[in-house]
Specification:
mainly beta, about 0% helix, globular
Amino acid sequence: MASGSGQQIVTLSPKKSDVNSLWIVRVATGAPISEAGTPVKCGQKIRLSHPTTQKNLHSHLVRSPLGRQQEVSAFGSDMEGDSGDDWVVSC
């Protein structure tokens, strides 16, 4: 029996040259961080937006079908979404 949110699956590739592994780091409000290369601070709220799909890395209270842990998916459109797209940097 299938489970999960039915949203777009997110996978990771260790290849640095894989364009699908690139993410834009944005502040949680959706505005871009001031300048490329600006360090992200501990405790800062961010969003990770996928430039190819225009979706955000999203978390919600749904178990993943594979790992049975909290699911992470791609959500939103034009890099806009909801509070499930906000992540807190833990250092």
